[in-house]
Amino acid sequence: MSKVIKNGTIVTADRQWKADVLIEGEHIAEIGENLTGDEVIDASDAYVIPGGIDPHTHLEMPFMGTTAAETFESGTFAAAAGGTTMLVDFCLPGEDGSLLNAIDDWDRKSKDQICTDISYHMAITGWSESIFDEMQKVVQERGINTFKHFMAYKGALMIEDDEMFASFKRCAELGALPLVHAENGDIVQELQQKYLAEGITGPEGHAYSRPPEVEGEAANRAIMIADAAGCPLYIVHVSCEQAHEAIRRARQKGMRVYGEPLIQHLTLDESEYFNKDWQYAARRVMSPPFRSKDHQNGLWNGLAAGSLQVVATDHAAFTDEQKRMGVDNFAMIPNGTGGLEERMAMLWTKGVETGRLTPEEFVAVTSTNIAKILNIYPMKGGIAVGGHADVVVWDPSIHRTVSVATQKSIIDYNVFEGMELKAAPRFTLSRGDVIWAHGQNSQPQPGRGKFIKRPPNASAAKALSKWKALNTPRKIERDPLNIPAGI
Amino acid sequence: MSKVIKNGTIVTADRQWKADVLIEGEHIAEIGENLTGDEVIDASDAYVIPGGIDPHTHLEMPFMGTTAAETFESGTFAAAAGGTTMLVDFCLPGEDGSLLNAIDDWDRKSKDQICTDISYHMAITGWSESIFDEMQKVVQERGINTFKHFMAYKGALMIEDDEMFASFKRCAELGALPLVHAENGDIVQELQQKYLAEGITGPEGHAYSRPPEVEGEAANRAIMIADAAGCPLYIVHVSCEQAHEAIRRARQKGMRVYGEPLIQHLTLDESEYFNKDWQYAARRVMSPPFRSKDHQNGLWNGLAAGSLQVVATDHAAFTDEQKRMGVDNFAMIPNGTGGLEERMAMLWTKGVETGRLTPEEFVAVTSTNIAKILNIYPMKGGIAVGGHADVVVWDPSIHRTVSVATQKSIIDYNVFEGMELKAAPRFTLSRGDVIWAHGQNSQPQPGRGKFIKRPPNASAAKALSKWKALNTPRKIERDPLNIPAGI
Amino acid sequence: MSKVIKNGTIVTADRQWKADVLIEGEHIAEIGENLTGDEVIDASDAYVIPGGIDPHTHLEMPFMGTTAAETFESGTFAAAAGGTTMLVDFCLPGEDGSLLNAIDDWDRKSKDQICTDISYHMAITGWSESIFDEMQKVVQERGINTFKHFMAYKGALMIEDDEMFASFKRCAELGALPLVHAENGDIVQELQQKYLAEGITGPEGHAYSRPPEVEGEAANRAIMIADAAGCPLYIVHVSCEQAHEAIRRARQKGMRVYGEPLIQHLTLDESEYFNKDWQYAARRVMSPPFRSKDHQNGLWNGLAAGSLQVVATDHAAFTDEQKRMGVDNFAMIPNGTGGLEERMAMLWTKGVETGRLTPEEFVAVTSTNIAKILNIYPMKGGIAVGGHADVVVWDPSIHRTVSVATQKSIIDYNVFEGMELKAAPRFTLSRGDVIWAHGQNSQPQPGRGKFIKRPPNASAAKALSKWKALNTPRKIERDPLNIPAGI
Amino acid sequence: MSKVIKNGTIVTADRQWKADVLIEGEHIAEIGENLTGDEVIDASDAYVIPGGIDPHTHLEMPFMGTTAAETFESGTFAAAAGGTTMLVDFCLPGEDGSLLNAIDDWDRKSKDQICTDISYHMAITGWSESIFDEMQKVVQERGINTFKHFMAYKGALMIEDDEMFASFKRCAELGALPLVHAENGDIVQELQQKYLAEGITGPEGHAYSRPPEVEGEAANRAIMIADAAGCPLYIVHVSCEQAHEAIRRARQKGMRVYGEPLIQHLTLDESEYFNKDWQYAARRVMSPPFRSKDHQNGLWNGLAAGSLQVVATDHAAFTDEQKRMGVDNFAMIPNGTGGLEERMAMLWTKGVETGRLTPEEFVAVTSTNIAKILNIYPMKGGIAVGGHADVVVWDPSIHRTVSVATQKSIIDYNVFEGMELKAAPRFTLSRGDVIWAHGQNSQPQPGRGKFIKRPPNASAAKALSKWKALNTPRKIERDPLNIPAGI
Ligand SMILES: [Zn+2]
Ligand SMILES: [Zn+2]
Ligand SMILES: [Zn+2]
Ligand SMILES: [Zn+2]
Ligand SMILES: [Zn+2]
Ligand SMILES: [Zn+2]
Ligand SMILES: [Zn+2]
Ligand SMILES: [Zn+2]
Predict the structure, then answer these.
(1) Ligand 1 center to residue A90 CA distance, Å?
(2) Which chains touch B (3 or more CB pairs under 8 A)?
(3) Is D97 exposed, middle or buried (0-12, 13-18, 19+ CB in 10 A)?
(4) Backbone phi, psi, residue B87, to 5°
(5) CB neighbour list of residue B334: distance below 8 Å, 6 or more residues apart
(6) C-alpha distances in angstroms, C112 versus B159, B212, C106, C445, C451?
(7) Which of A336, C48, C343, C450 measures 20 to 30 Å from A442, CA to CA?
(8) Is the Cα torsion angle A79, A85, A88, A91 positive or negative in sign?
(9) Where are the domains of chain B?
(10) How far is A189 from chain D (nearest CA, A)?
């Protein structure tokens, strides 16, 4: 049974035009004028855009002694309600350290729950020969071409520079892309102790102990290591000018570095942590913390300039009760906030409606760019014949106010509470299925989502390999007569 | 009669994939596997890319007391032979100062000669109410959405800052895009006089009198003026880090500024002017002059980073005899070199074959980006159903050495003489016609090219207008009691 | 009769140490422990610093249809009361355009009035052979080694780029230093008209029409011109990051560029112009206008980093009545504010007391650096045997609140009204005379001040000349056989 | 018995003037015209400058399995012959890890040998409570106010980020200044292994394995850590733009960071390592390695701009035989070169004689700035009444060619061999003694040199402490009603 999305204005990362979209099964079959199908989806007065891709979520993640409350079901349904049709979750090795076992675990958790498609980034939280070996299988057998590295969370997820170098080199060999959480974990820990010792135990201490310089430093370091290892690099949750500047410097030298700001950092600022209500402030605790308005402006400009490429959420939702684990010590507050449902509408409202971003740029940073980086474009992230029919009918006439009362997320608050959103999905389609229809009491369809395999060797990685091979240092050939005997 | 381009790998600015392209008449009708048509164009082992767009040429331009030797016929045929299917020439007002008359003149010259499609940028070389009025007609009636401003060539084409501001504001109102030739014309003239007075009369004086700082200054100034006027800006022939840095600074502040390096500046350096053979050096005289290797590296990196968007040629070809007008005075050497035929193959050779650029980036900077900037995408600059069938079968197995003996350009030398090119068009199609076929003795088809109208209000201009309107300074309302009487 | 300043801590730009200062006549005769003299000046619990030098004042200046109200008498007495013992006023050519006549005029006005020493910067407000000729006499006969150039005030003081280049070249020949007021006068005028046309007639329009980008542009342009002309450059009243960044870029390339922030820009911000009381806002109208806190922070950091060297006032005091000339049109409000009396104490309070500056840096930026730049160190600007006894006993225990009621300035308000100052001169000595003693009802001593001649060829100018001569472009010698005949 | 230096031109960091210098015993007693003394030292046609201070030497240092061949005697005598009257050597803890014992060791080695005055920087090569405790004694009892931290030499001297933070915090408490060798030791080791594995065993591998990005990264990291710890920072042997840029960024944010380029990096470039003669290349092996001309230019510009403050040598001289320890493996070549004797004359020749530096800047970067940083100015580093009579009569008419045959250094080569030096000391005085007289067969006077104690709390450190205290984050006070119960 075919569907046709009629009378909308398609917006892609390249352009806008009026056309209908014909869907046959899971795929887009045709784009053009006056198309017909078995079922008509009305897009009059609306845009037709690629389904959003959120490349940074932590659903049901075991972390800081608890587990993120958002489930694969609630999370993917919230995503769908917000216009996001794919997310990439972070898969963390368990106690046995095995990457493959971790993937199996994640599959078990997600498989029967997911309403949208998903993928994983594989975390490298240590280094060993077996990890070196498993990485190949992760890429070639499991279809995961990205590896995450934590430069913070000392004593838990954090790894050292030589381990990063080893893993990055392995990524270069495999055509995979390393990701980093860039904060200097040593210094974060030292500052946490310093502020706690000074009696600063509230959520403001979280912000104080993770200042922008500490993030910028780590970003700069990761970039150097990637350059030395000969691979591209993707820096998650870029929140400040220091990190952004490091990315710009790198790109200006021809390095292939990508930066991902979060919707939270684009729209909320550090004053949230100074709220007199502990719970209010604790709900906003995430790493890196929110920054000042100047940093925000820099991030927005970077999206327009192309020095930053992707807007994500780092969705890691903990309940009020979980947050209270840190009532006496900010360092014990589980790090994370929500945003999966609001990401696209917040970005539209604060970006497109203000003229900071064009509609095309909105599409680029919510789906297309990351699809290219993840090497799944245009299966995902485009409106392309042959690609998956992950399509959103995006309606700028639906305005609503964010409220915990109406959200799909499982948790008991919303960091965007009370903000007005100036667009929403009229329909969200995932591989041809309508999984969300505005005002029609849509329900989660757990288990219909699929895991999407991603091949290695994206175009930028291939070009970089070629350049590095051409420019590798060469041995100086010396006449043995000009080499003395050793001692 | 339909044509099908079979068995190639399509490369667009977004991606690469194997598919056939079906052409009906002037347009692309279908893209897919196993297509059939009346005529088959073999693209086996080759890429299928959008026809190149060179947005910067001066064919038959009256300049510096002579007229550029390259004709619309020879120029557009050279273009076709090199894989370029559209060029944008600079239309200069004549003695009466009328923009519309100048367009008529240019039409007269080009109409019966052009083998490929063309458009014009309209030059603003002075300011008056009639120019203000004519600009509207140029945009709305003549289909030209770009206006060129010369900050150099004092006493001839150069205009002053207040004139630029007035013209840029007019561009903002009309949804048009201003372009600038960025060099400080006052200082260039002073330095010319200084070096001539010191007895430096040879072509090296051309380079000395137009140093990078002089270009960077003007770029920076134009950017400020565009920001104040509220319009985007396109800087032609960006040759140096100073100008590039000004562009990066602007983009980082959210300004909409584009930069266009030339293939010459990407591949040739200032040492050319120090050649002991006067004629050799004089042939390379163009403005800005070639720069050092460091500047070159910066330009390449900018193409990959996205801080520069377009590679052009500034093709303005003067014969050896014409160049000799300046044998006693470098300032009298007609400024300009060729490149229309070599642009795409040089960029491929030095860019894609080295890994500096991906194939997608190659397409972006040779056609797609400029098509978007000029607001004609994807009619031009893409491989898109419904778009013009301006398509090149790009064959990386055809290697050749640049030689004046085999070039299509009318002039008697080639600044790339002797360089090896590692790709060439197997076929060049313009609106469905094969206008160049490798090894088949293709001939010019003058008069078949068309003038392409370009609508105003590209997406970036619209977004910028919205942002500027939202952020315009507001009057402070004061109680009359708080305002004293005047004196 | 000798004087000895006893028991103080001397602070110079280099160091702090406890020592006495013996003064014989106009000069410092000895520095050491346990000195004795005919008269003792008590410096216990105080610092002993070089008298301040304010290199930027406009006393009794004819400007914008009126004349600055501060006289040479009231201005130099206010200076003395604030610890400043020398100022450099801007000498503007009159209608006849003669530089020498202007100096005579300024001498006439100042001679019998000045309580402290003074010098002049000579303004170049046009270009001609007679100006070229007079410049030599100004330097060699009149002892003025600095020339001021206005890039703003179009139609009045402003000059064009080629004129600046000519004047800067002349400065290079004479070993003189050019100064610039850096704002793009064309664009300022255009923006004034734009905002007036939009009905923004109040003082906020002054700020809107002179945005930071407009200043940064001009700074950048002046730097390029100085580099091309081969001379150092001094940029007055640097108010914003854009201009500061241009200075940093230049210095980083080895250019000899200096920047002078004003005490007003370091301590007051743009919100002053949004005050609901017109007169309040109008009093603060000066060019460049005050900026945001971010710009302020940049300026402070530049003083510590050495990218900015001098803190001045641009003291140009107009009365409330004079300000009302612009009640219907902000562009008619006479530009200028006061600060001569408060400069040193404000800088100490906001700089040294906060730890932003060391005491040594305070001395450097209030006197020593400018004395070196003006080539009169250590006659002025130091505590040195043989130098002028321009010395201040600086007492951090004297706190006071700025008030128009107690100020020495002639005008009827104070832009720092109500601020607490955490230091003041206990005694101010000018060439050995006590011209201000705290709490002792000191009175002006008009006519005792002297005009100080300043020789050309400061050390930096000499070094730059040598470097430029070594690195000047060289003619390429070509065999006549390799040069064709002309046409 | 007094001495008078007659008829010279004194040059200090501030100024040049003609005056005589009277020396009584170890100190300067008077500066003025027509002075007389028991002994006359002729300075006609010469400059009189402060004795040079080289703050970076490694005499008789145990390192990489051998011991630097230059002794305290030969090193300090070479220094004197070159115009350097004080050096600061790096004191490394021995196997017991004790700082105080290490100082005793260093004293034992140096005491009877030194011809000039010396001091030590104390190295922190690990972290423990006893080191924490000993640091106080090092500062308060031993007169050492600087602590060196190695970010490279993994497995030997290198320490981790948390250790650096702890040590820097301790420095902040003690008013001491941390120094860093900034290279990422993890990545250096990885790159060494990589290039060795590829068969690159020659000295070029040394350069390849320590690229500029690796140095820039570490500089950036150390700066962040110092900022977090609240202390100033001194970065030794800044060799490249990446590190220099990190310093500029920091200074521009108001951080107190100093950079020290070496005379070798200012004058020699990376091509030295590509020499076909192994021994030639191996002699130049030091860390960081020499860089390209672009980096050199940046360093020179930084000295003039003030973003770099000190020129040192890192004198660590190993013989040809010692260098041959690495004949099969560049990583085994002892790191170090000489320069103590040539530093001042090389800098004068390439700096002052070319106009890159003024004579005053030459003095500043060879002695005055480091004396201020080390908090011993003007006892050392100036020509000041009461200061040590460490004075050089600097004669720009003595030209000589560097040659191992005539050098004072003990080793068997000279990295500046064959270069022409355009100035030399006519006389070098150390605390009033003539320790070198040109052409008079001066001999070493071992044991006359003294260890110079340096007090903590230099002015910049005090100001920074004040600023940090004022700007420390504050606890948010929350009503207990607004803090939930924990879980
Ligand atoms: Zn993270
Ligand atoms: Zn995360
Ligand atoms: Zn041009
Ligand atoms: Zn052109
Ligand atoms: Zn001014
Ligand atoms: Zn002024
Ligand atoms: Zn070192
Ligand atoms: Zn060292």
Answers:
(1) 10
(2) A, C
(3) middle
(4) -135, 155
(5) B63, B64, B65, B66, B68, B285, B316, B318, B322, B323, B325, B326
(6) 49, 51, 11, 10, 11
(7) A336
(8) positive
(9) 47-465
(10) 9
Mean pLDDT of C311-320: 97
State how far residue C356 is from chain B, nearest Cα, in angstroms: 28
What distance in angstroms lies between residue D153's CA and the mean position of ligand 7's atoms?
9
Query: What single string gives the DSSP state of each residue in D464-487?
Result: HHHHHHHT---PPP--GGGS----
Which of C43, C70, C46, C48 has the alpha carbon at shortest distance from C57? C70
Instruction: Report d(CA B88, CA B94) in Å as an integer.
Output: 19
Are B306 and A301 within 8 A, CB to CB?
A: no
| Closest CB from C302, C354, C466 relative to D354 | C466
Angle at A421 between CA A419 and CA A426, to 5 degrees: 145
- Scanning the structure block, which residue is given the tokens 């159903």? B385
For the stretch D120-161, pLDDT in tens is 999 999 999 999 999 999 999 999 999 999 999 999 999 999
Q: Is A198 within 8 Å of D276 when comparing Cβ atoms?
A: no
Residues of C with Cβ-Cβ distance to B182 under 8 angstroms:
none
Q: Sort out which chain B residues have CB atoms less than 8 A from A368's CB and list them.
A: 14
Contacts of B360 in chain A (CB under 8 A): 459
CB contact under 8 A, D198 and A475: yes
**What's the rounded mean pLDDT across residues C231-258?**
98
Distance from CA of C458 to the nearest CA of D (A): 10
Structure token digits, residue A376: 């799944």
Mean pLDDT on C250-267: 98
> What's the gap in Å between D350 CA and the centre of ligand 7?
24
Q: Is B103 exposed, middle or buried (0-12, 13-18, 19+ CB in 10 A)?
A: buried
Q: How large is the C-alpha radius of gyration of chain A?
A: 23
How many angstroms does the Cα of residue D58 sit away from the middle of ligand 8? 6
CA distance linking residue B103 with residue B127, whole number of Å: 17
Q: What is the mean pLDDT of residues D51-68?
A: 95
Q: Quick one: pLDDT band at residue A279, thresholds 50, 70, 90?
A: very high
The pLDDT value recorded for residue C487 is 74
Cis check for the bond before A484: say yes or no (omega within 30 of 0). no
In CATH, which of 3.40.50.2000, 3.20.20.140, 3.40.50.300, 3.40.630.30 is domain B47-465? 3.20.20.140
Neighbouring CB atoms inside 10 A of D346's CB total 25
Cβ burial of C39 (10 Å; 0-12, 13-18, 19+) is: exposed
Angle at A68 between CA D485 and CA A84, to 5 degrees: 130
Query: What was the pLDDT predicted at B64?
Result: 86
CB B107 within 8 A of CB B73: no
Instruction: Burial-class residue C443 by CB neighbours within 10 Å (0-12, 13-18, 19+).
Output: exposed
The distance of B244 to chain C (nearest Cα, Å) reads: 14
Q: pLDDT for D193-202, tens place per residue?
A: 999 999 999 9
- Helix axis angle for A99-110 and A129-140, nearest 10°, is 40
Q: Which two tokens stand for residue C156?
A: 């009045």
ipTM score for this prediction: 0.97
Residues C362, C367, C371, C373, Cα dihedral to 10°? 50
Other Cβ atoms closer than 10 A to A129: 7
- Find the C183 Cα to ligand 5 centroid distance in Å: 9
Asked whether D376 and C13 are in contact (CB, 8 A), the reply is: no
**Taking CA atoms, what residue in C is nearest to B203?**
C476
CB contact under 8 A, B354 and A470: yes
Q: What phi, psi does D460 have (nearest 5°)?
A: -65, -40
As a whole number of Å, the CA-based R_g of chain B is 23
Flag if C301 and D465 touch (Cβ within 8 Å): no
**Residue D64 in this model has a pLDDT that exceeds 90:** no
